[in-house]
Amino acid sequence: VSQAQVAIGPNTIFNEIDLEATPSIERDIKEVLLADPRFTINPDNRRALSCNGSHPRLNGFTLDGVALTDGFGLNSNGYPTTRMPFSYDAVQQVAVEFAPFDVQYGNFQACAINAVTKSGTNELEGDFYVYNRNEGMVGSDAFGNEPGNFAEDTLGFSLGGPIVKDKLFFYANYESFEQVYPSFYGPVGS
Question: What is the radius of gyration, based on Cα positions, of the chain?
Answer without folding.
Answer: 19
